[in-house]
Amino acid sequence: MFAWLTSLFSGKSQRANASGSASLVHAVSSGASTRTPRASVRRASPPSPPATPARSADEPYIDTLAREVGALTALTPFQEQSTSLLVEAVSSYVGTHAIDPPVMPALASRMLELLRADEVDVVALSRLIEKDQATAAKLMSIANSALYKGNTEVQGVRDAVVFLGTEQVAQIAIGLASRAMFEAPVDRRNAVGAERFQRLFNHAMTTAFAACHLATQRSRRHSEAAFLGGLFHDVGKAVALRAIHDMVRAKQIEQPSEVVVDAALQQIHGEPTAALYQSWKLPRQLMSMCQNHHRLALDTVPELHFVRLASGLDALRTGADVDKREALQEIGESAAALKLNDAQVRVANTETHAFGERVLHMFG
């Protein structure tokens, strides 16, 4: 089930190959189980999806999405100039200062190794999770939350694994173990804009769950790549946001406006420089996803298009105007690459929104 993920993390970490990355200056100038389950524990049921929004019978669904989004506010000339200056400042700072790079959490790697077996050992999986008290506590909280309509209280990690299912538990645990990459530095949790880290994490988890689900409907062999691709595709924004926080704290720059930060983060991670990625220690396939998911060719492997489709659909619901503008184009492109018709895109949108609500209940 998780063979792709296991092989991905079993080797040594590799340095990013940034030879195909566009320079940031160019981006600015161009605009561009083996145990029997306990009888007292009932299987969890997923939450019900929201109702599908109404649309006219003959309107292409991508036009429906654009209509629902409404008019998007363009940057003013001053905001464009401020964005360019912030992008240049972040690029320079990342190139000359030590920013904690994204790394694959040890718990995730060990869990993926365990999940290599065709029959997952529930006892071994439970013991692995129990070693991380924070993850175990959060997993128990999720299993006993109103999100899952169980009649019996889940009292231990093993019961939670049986109740939620090994695959869902693995996804939640990997997400929790990776959350530190989407958090403000410990000494700056109350910094201006720190809530952006929570939004980044929620978007990452929503994209991961939705992309994995959409890919599974096509083929199980795409689901693992889609999940991890969704989880890490925007982690570059978190790196750039840490740099902005560092510079504001050091009084190297003034606190930029929300609109300018939105635009700068989108531009930096969409057209990255070698400086942003050269110190990362993620597997090569994930590095490629982080660097190039906004510049996919139509013949790119399907799981990457599922990531872009899910990310775009969630961005229409939760993103800034600059995110929504790009999302509409990418939804259309990736839907076409996957040969999805209007009805299928409409269902994907409804399911992505449902996963977004689930993530809010799970992770806050």
Provide structural commentary.
The protein has 364 residues and is an all-alpha fold. The chain has two domains: 23-32 and 58-100 and 199-364, no CATH class; 103-184, no CATH class. It is built from 18 helices and no strands.
Q: Which sequence of SSEs, written as H and E, runs from N to C?
A: HHHHHHHHHHHHHHHHHH
Report the mean per-residue pLDDT as an integer. 78
| Euclidean distance between termini CA atoms | 29 Å
Helical segment tally?
18
By secondary-structure content and strand pairing, the structural class works out as mainly alpha
List the helices and strands and how they pair.
Blueprint: H1 3-10, H2 24-30, H3 61-69, H4 77-96, H5 106-114, H6 122-130, H7 133-143, H8 157-164, H9 166-178, H10 195-218, H11 220-232, H12 235-249, H13 258-270, H14 274-277, H15 284-292, H16 302-318, H17 321-337, H18 342-363
Helix pairs in contact: 1-5, 2-4, 3-17, 4-12, 4-13, 5-6, 5-9, 6-8, 7-8, 7-9, 8-9, 10-11, 10-16, 10-18, 11-16, 12-13, 16-17, 16-18
Task: Write a short abstract of this structure.
The chain is mainly α and 364 residues long. The protein is 63% helix and 0% strand. It is globular and about 60 Å long.
Task: Describe the structure using short key phrases.
globular; 364 residues; disordered N terminus; 0% strand; mainly alpha
